[in-house]
Specification:
739 residues; alpha+beta; Immunoglobulin-like; TIM Barrel; 2 domains; eight-stranded parallel sheet; seven-stranded antiparallel sheet; 45 strands; 19% helix; globular
């Protein structure tokens, strides 16, 4: 039967005893279909571009999406009501979501009308039954990606949303049959879970606890399309402060002010790049609060500086800033001071908890009054020069980190209204990325096994919508060793955030404390990280605009290559750099080069290698196996940078990897304020014509700060490096590089 559009003006349609209606007018053009079926209210809508929603309510109330997981600034997609025989629903430019009331079924189709999810049952239970079960039938064999915390594999078939020490599982997946799904319930602290049996043709079933189920469906041909749709729904990550892309030195156990100054001097004297010092408990309290009882202590300080470490915080922070070193302080979501706790309990601001003294002191940041209180008490710390927050142990509820970050954003807006918020959190829930938050993998161990598992976790978090991830490089505990730390630092060059950390009892992960060879190798890795800052910072803007993460599994770029399905011990930064660092005690490994492309060895004059092959390679203690896709342009900064504030530091080193046409957009801005959101940036788009071997560029934007590149050096890597071509870096330009 020929499909026909159902007119928007139609007020009511009766079909098989089921009522469909247009809702009250909305702020943006959108149509919905509502139905009462089997004791449940069914609604279909298009909440934003690329996303359709199947809503089920068993309490008779209409669809009101209040979840903090969703971007409040999302714009509903244009859609029309649609009828195809017994199927009635909505369609958008992304696809069609339809129900058949007579058979109590629903289906999802892509933009061309092809079936993505075959007819699947609508809830048949009475309205009082919980949870609400929504099975999704398979449209053929499928792999599932994206739920977050699966350290052993990129693939999974079930997820129970959970936050823990370095653990984050979210109610989302992408299916290789051509769609992604994300779920919310009526209570964000009890998000839905899903399960699929090992039988290939069994359905994957969502379970929504309570009386409300929202299943957001995204027709998506691959992981890149799914990532873009998920960002549309839950929010795009802002561009972080540029210094967070440098090296961040963290430890538990900074001793005193002299120790801080000595450490800064060591970095400078040894020409070791660093952009931040991250402080643990010792920055605000002489002793941790782990032994503080539920009632608190009268002399515990929650919102002040420890005079042993920071007797004059403003002076110390000013001095660090002059040296290009930023300051990040740890925060806990709880109080330790008796008076503050008594005040908070008077207003019922403390979350209910079990028998733990720690958990019995945690603030309920979901309350606006608590966020006001916390922001007010945090403002004096920011006024002294703190640049960012390290949020630890906030897993008591699934939404705690989200509301906690809102309080920090509120305080920053009062002190530095144009500054970019940045925090590092021990877990994340959906949508946290849009606040400017990053996440790290918690208290991992100083073992080769934990190093090997780290890339898989970070890649899974990338696929779950968190583009800014980190770990305790070298392992939190126990003691690390020179080789393990070196190899972990080399891998960290290709993590979104490069940060070391260690426990109080371990040797701090300062490079010079692990011998001359380790220091030299780590210095080389740090210099490479800083060379890559122009590339990474441009990818940060790309992530903000497109929703694509910086750190990507190979399957995201090469979905048609079956060898990439499971690979997570090598990965891509952007779509050009393939990192395959040594992750074991052996100095050799296997590297797979995906098909459909040729690959150059980074920093090598050797010719390209064909794809679709595995290589057995060795890597000396100072080598990192890295490959670059043919048809790429990679902008690099000088190897002499010691802080991101040193940019530009010399000419832009533009590397062209020929073999195909290529393009790349270099983005420059002030690196610290939100002015880029108002167009205050400089965007230079480079294009490479492989046939004529000509590089052209065109610039847009008026930003002209002291940190922009003024000159350029272009190299085609299939020629000897000595043949780099220097050129003026004007608003437009052209360089031809003959063979």
């Amino acid at each position: 039967m020929k499909a026909t559009a159902v007119p928007i003006a139609l007020a009511t349609l009766l079909l098989s005893g089921c009522t469909f209606r247009n809702p009250a007018p909305r702020a943006v053009p959108s149509a919905t279909v509502d139905a009462k079926l089997s004791g449940a209210v069914i609604e279909l809508s298009a909440p934003c571009g690329g996303v359709l929603c199947l809503h089920v309510s068993t309490n008779g109330e209409p669809h009101t999406p209040r979840s903090i997981f969703l971007d409040p600034d999302r714009v509903a997609d244009d859609c029309s009501q649609f009828r195809d025989g017994n199927w009635v629903g909505i369609r958008t430019s992304a696809g069609q979501l339809l129900i058949d009331p007579a058979k109590s079924q629903w289906t999802l189709r892509n933009a061309s009308g092809g079936t993505v999810i075959p007819p699947s049952p609508l809830p048949a239970q009475p309205a009082t039954t919980s949870p609400i079960a929504l099975p999704i039938h398979a449209n053929g064999p499928a792999d599932f990606y994206g739920s977050g915390d699966v350290a052993s594999s990129l693939l999974h078939i079930s997820a129970v949303p959970y936050l823990g020490n370095g653990h984050a599982t979210i109610p989302y997946y992408f299916s290789t049959t051509g769609y992604a799904a994300f779920g919310t319930s009526g209570d964000d602290n009890t998000p839905p879970d899903y399960f699929k049996s090992l039988t290939s043709d069994s359905p994957i079933t969502w379970y929504f606890h309570g009386t409300s189920a929202n299943l957001y469906l995204m027709p998506a041909r691959d992981l890149k399309a799914a990532a873009a749709a998920l960002a549309q729904l839950t929010g795009h990550a802002p561009v972080p402060p540029r210094w967070t892309l440098g090296y961040l030195q963290s430890r538990w156990g900074w001793k005193n002010s002299a120790y801080l100054q000595d450490t800064a001097r060591e970095f400078k004297a040894r020409h070791l790049p660093v952009d931040a010092f991250i402080f643990d408990f010792e920055w605000y309290t002489p002793t941790p609060d782990y032994t503080v009882k539920s009632q608190g202590l009268p002399d515990f300080h929650d919102f002040s500086f420890n005079p042993t470490l920071l007797p004059q915080p403003r002076s110390a922070f000013d001095e660090f800033h002059q040296q290009g070193i930023h300051v990040v302080g740890i925060r806990k979501p709880r109080l330790g001071n008796f008076g503050e706790l008594e005040y908070a309990r008077t207003y019922h601001w403390i979350l209910p908890a079990g028998n733990s003294d720690i958990d019995s002191r945690v603030l309920n940041f979901a309350l606006p009054a608590v966020r006001n209180y916390y922001a007010e008490h945090t403002e004096p710390l920011l006024s002294q020069g703190v640049d960012g927050w390290w949020n630890d142990e906030g897993e008591l509820t699934y939404t705690l980190y989200h509301y906690w970050n809102l309080a920090e954003i509120q305080s920053l807006a009062e002190v530095r209204p144009t500054a970019r918020h940045w925090s590092l959190n021990r877990a994340f829930s959906p949508g946290l990325q849009r606040t400017g938050a990053a996440a790290w993998t918690g208290d991992i161990h100083a073992t080769w096994d934990d190093l090997q598992q780290t890339p898989t976790t970070l890649l899974n978090w990338s696929l779950a919508g968190m583009p800014w991830t980190a770990c305790d490089i070298g392992g939190f505990s126990p003691e690390t060793n020179p080789k393990l730390l070196t190899r972990w630092m080399q891998a960290g060059v290709f993590f979104p955030i490069m940060r070391t950390h260690s426990t109080l009892e371990a040797t701090p992960h300062f490079p010079w404390l692990f011998g001359a060879e380790a220091q030299a190798d780590i210095k080389s890795a740090l210099q490479l990280r800083y060379e890559l800052i122009p590339y990474y910072y441009s990818l940060a803007h790309q992530a903000h605009e497109s929703g694509l993460p910086l750190m990507r599994p190979l399957v995201m770029e090469f979905p048609g290559d079956p060898h990439c399905t499971y690979l997570s011990d090598e990965w891509l930064m952007g779509d050009s750099l393939l990192a395959a660092p040594i992750l074991s005690e052996s100095d050799s490994r296997s590297v797979y080069l995906p098909g459909g492309a040729s690959w150059y060895r980074f920093n090598s004059s050797a010719g390209p290698l064909p794809g679709n092959q595995s290589l057995q390679i060795g890597a000396a203690h100072n080598e990192i196996p890295v490959y670059v896709r043919a048809g790429s342009i990679v902008p690099l900064g000088p190897a002499t940078l010691e802080h991101t504030d040193d940019l530009p530091g010399g000419p832009l080193d533009l590397r062209v990897y020929p073999g195909k046409d290529a393009s790349f957009t270099l983005v420059e801005d002030d690196g610290c304020t939100t002015a880029y959101l108002r167009g205050k940036s400089r965007r230079t788009t480079f294009t490479w014509n492989d046939a004529s071997r000509t590089l052209r560029w065109k610039r847009e934007g008026s930003y002209a700060g002291k940190d922009v590149f003024q000159s350029i050096s272009v190299t085609s890597v299939d020629l000897d490096r000595g043949q780099a071509v220097a050129a003026p870096f004007g608003a437009t330009g052209e360089v031809r590089i003959p063979r």
